[in-house]
Amino acid sequence: MYERLFRIFWKNISGERAKRLCAEIYMSDVRQTLSAFWNSAKLIAQELKDSGIEDVKIIEQKADGKTKYGDWITPQGWEVEKAYVKIIEPKDMEGILTSYDENPVSLATLSASTPNGGITTELLSWEDLKDKSAISGKVVLTSKRMREIRGEAMEYGALGIISYWLSGERRFLVPDANYWENYCFVPRNIWGGFGFTISPRKGELLRELCRKGKVKVHVEVKTKFLDATIPIVTGVIPGEEEDREVILVAHLYEVGANDNASGCATCVEILRTINDLISKGDLPRPRRSIRVILGYECYALMAYLTMFKERITNMIAGLNLDMVGEDQDLCKSVLLLSVTHPAARAFTDYLLMRLLEIAKSLMPRFTWRVRETGIYMIHDGSILSDPMIDVPTPALINWPDMFYHSNLDTPDKVSPNTLRLVGTVGATYVYFIANAHEKEVRALAQEVFNAARKRILDIASTYVHTLVLKGHDVDRIVGDAIDKIDFITEVEERAIRSVLRIHLNEKLKEEVDELCLTLRDFAKQEKKRILSIARGIIGRGVKPERPAIKVPKDMEEAMHLVPVRKVLGVPTLVDLPKEALMELRSITSESYPYSRLLCAPLFWANGRRSIAEIAEEVRKELGKSDIAFLVKLFKFLEKYGYVTLKKRSK
């Protein structure tokens, strides 16, 4: 069903052309400034216009560090004139440690200016300090991520921070890379400090110097903050049903060639190729429109969805391209398919799996795998796939990447072959959904059903294997198996029914209903098979011990309180007062956006489920849940305006 389309796009997508555009975007975005971001947006808008894409627009979202879109506050605009750190003492080490001119990634985003002419002061190692008050008026050196110590360091009077943090084993494998610190001072630099990053190799050397004696540095930073606007680029290939759209997204304005100039360049290449094939008559104009949205990661989509809320219901599905150009051998990467959440599982995941299987046959060395919990990574696909927004948008992301968020994420790490492959997958995906009619939707529903059936069979077989190996604790194992099969059956039914987002008529609906009934019957037979095998093992009847959340008497309100989400999208909690954050941390250690403990309950909160019912769904998804925790969490979210708690009659 997809092979013909795939071959057409494979022949026409140019990885080399995408890489050239990727390099141009990188050369602009690596500067990190508002003016550089506008240059990138204008470059892409012109590329789209030159490719014949229609309705190309630059939409302006406020970048003042104050305006909210949902709960997302776009960072303030920022310009850099100069920034550097120079070692003054010891004399034998005198010289430039790092500078923005040579390495723009070394300057922490939204760093503030020093006084005119800069500052000369002592550099102190944070990890070796016995008295934190000693850092007043000094610069701090740390192996920690800058944002981890920012609050405390600035409260003690530090003027700035130099960090040589690099995640995990990367500090040993790429010791000359320096991390891009993009989150320390957002959305506004209320601390008035500055930050630089250096490589682990330089950092360890500098720390040793600090231990041996006094180290003095001269730092000069000249930057400017602007309450401004930042651009979102959009364009469309109109379909016959112009208002119904398939969405292609990627984020601009990061410092890496792979993250994410590669995704933006690939989006442009996909639209250029589709439009060219339509113009030449090699492909018909699709039934539905294909729209691209490119901008600041997450912030741009939240702004777009807020400004054009009425368009959400016409968005059929999406695809997020994020870090899609990696030379996988060089970057030690695997392409992850980040799937939709179980509460809103969709056909999109299975369509992409099928296309990636075709891709693998063309490039055997190319590697990919499914990431079931990818929704909890912060990316544009997570924004759209949030069940509250309900635009199923899986993401393709090369992860891990040895050079991620560092000065070494440069165009030489980008493979035109990977760009071509992902571009072909993406083009086939968006065009197929945009053009599918009754016949294609029927076939897609059958494919999703087949995949769902196999998933249930695999789960059942795993539990059968466990029963045979263990031979004891049978009632619990059978209970777990039935619980898991029931949950997965519900999830996969959602995926099968989601094909009707593309095209809906009464006949198709009846056929999809029949597929769902058949899936339930198959699940029932698999549960019977497990029970039969279990009886044979223990020689008696089985009493399945199904796991379930027990509601304590003092928590019975959980059965009657129904959370209703009020704020579009996932909370960032970025502007909560300090006392509120302390209150949240007393409830959970995971007080950051897209943590599972925060997001999973929200994703299951559909305005009809009680807290107790949400707790059950979270347990089925994550393997554990705590009603007392969820009651506290939802009351906290109600207190700060994120949800309303309706009372259901007893």
Kindly describe this structure.
This protein has 650 residues and is of the alpha/beta class. The chain folds into four domains: 40-74 and 229-435, Aminopeptidase; 77-226, Glucose Oxidase, domain 1; 438-538; 553-647, no CATH class. Helices cover 43% and strands 19% of the residues. It has helices at residues 3-12, 15-29, 34-50, 146-155, 170-173, 200-212, 261-279, 299-307, 328-331, 347-362, 380-385, 416-435, 438-470, 474-497, 506-538, 578-587, 596-604, 611-622, 627-639; strands at 54-63, 68-69, 72-73, 77-89, 95-99, 119-125, 139-142, 160-163, 194-197, 216-226, 228-237, 241-252, 288-296, 315-322, 335-338, 368-371, 395-398, 561-565, 643-647. Strands 1-11-13-12-14-17-15-16 form an eight-stranded mixed sheet, sandwiched between helices. Strands 5-4-10-6-7-8-9 form a seven-stranded mixed sheet, covered by helices on one side. Strands 2-3 form a two-stranded antiparallel sheet. The two termini are 51 Å apart.
